[in-house]
UniProtKB/TrEMBL annotation:
The name this protein goes by in its record: Serine protease
Source organism, top-level taxon: Bacteria
A Gene Ontology BP annotation from the UniProt entry: proteolysis
GO MF: peptidase activity
Keywords: Hydrolase, Protease
Coiled-coil region list: none
The keyword Membrane is annotated on this UniProt entry: no
Pfam families in alphabetical order: Trypsin_2 (PF13365)
InterPro entries: Peptidase_S1_PA
Length: 275
């Protein structure tokens, strides 16, 4: 492969925010996916955690686009994203069983090009094919407490190790744990694996492994104490949510277990920072 998933996802990840009218704002994270319609029409999809949109009370959010300038600098230019009708009807599609949301957007051409192909999302067998297990390192992108990496509005890249076993199959274990400190504002950010050389099960040669494993949806908290563990929802459920944009009755997986017992959402509701 000639692409670097870390860099590609940095460009595809955006800050989502909604001013609350009192000098503060609610913040979450999302990322863009290139998912053509069944008839082949190009389409850009914004993916985030369902609770990010659900906790934004207004009809319009803001999506943090970034544009490159001729001198090598970048400009941060948030634009309006309509998420509800006037009557309160939600315009996004949500997974009926998992904390995942998707909405078709019209992004500026420069930003639409940054959307990652839907094929980069892990499938049901991706973890087993690549031997993903406890102790493997994954990376995550987001805007903790609404903080960006710089004035250009790029997301902050962090990492953690897979902290649960087993992690597959997704229909049995729809979420997995990541040894990673979650802050409000991280919700909805992509979690991914990008290794230059990894020996897959049954293979004698090391191969490059790059895929989006899922999105961050919760933090583990017990008796009001943060355990510095994040909960990641498997990318399989992102795929199912996107499929429901075209067919609201598209089948979804009903998982038999869940690692989120005792956890609560790292919700956008808490990610209140100065406007």
């Amino acid at each position: 492969m000639v692409w670097d998933l870390s860099v590609e996802l940095i460009h595809a990840t955006v800050q989502l925010e909604q001013p609350l009218g009192d000098g503060t704002r609610t913040v979450g994270t999302g990322f863009l996916v290139k998912a053509p319609t069944p008839d082949g029409r190009p389409r850009t999809i914004l993916v985030t955690a369902n609770h990010v949109f659900a906790k934004m009370p207004g009809a319009n959010a803001r999506i943090g686009y970034r544009f490159s300038n001729s001198d090598g600098s970048w400009s941060y230019s948030p634009q309006t994203l309509k998420i509800r009708e006037r009557g309160g009807e939600e315009l996004w599609t949500k997974h009926p069983a998992r904390d995942v949301a998707a909405i078709e957007i019209t992004a500026p051409p420069e930003f639409a090009k940054a959307a990652i192909p839907v094929d980069w999302l892990a499938k049901d067998d991706t973890f087993s094919k690549n031997g993903v297990a406890a102790g493997d390192q994954m990376m995550a992108l987001g805007f903790p407490r609404g903080l960006a990496a710089n004035q250009a509005g790029f997301p902050i890249l962090r990492s953690g190790k897979v902290a649960s076993y087993p992690v597959a199959p997704a229909n049995v274990f729809p979420t997995f744990l990541l040894d990673f400190t979650v802050f409000p504002g991280n919700s909805g950010g992509p979690v991914f694996m990008s290794e230059g050389a990894r020996r897959r099960p049954g293979s004698v040669e090391a191969q490059e492994v790059q895929f989006v494993a899922g999105l961050l949806t919760q933090q583990v908290e017990l008796n009001n104490e943060r355990l510095e563990i994040g909960i990641v929802t498997h990318a399989k459920y992102i795929r199912e949510t996107i499929a429901r944009l075209d067919d609201p009755l598209a089948p979804v997986t009903v998982a038999h277990a869940d690692n989120s017992t005792g956890a609560r959402a790292a919700s956008a509701e808490e990610a209140v920072s100065p406007d």
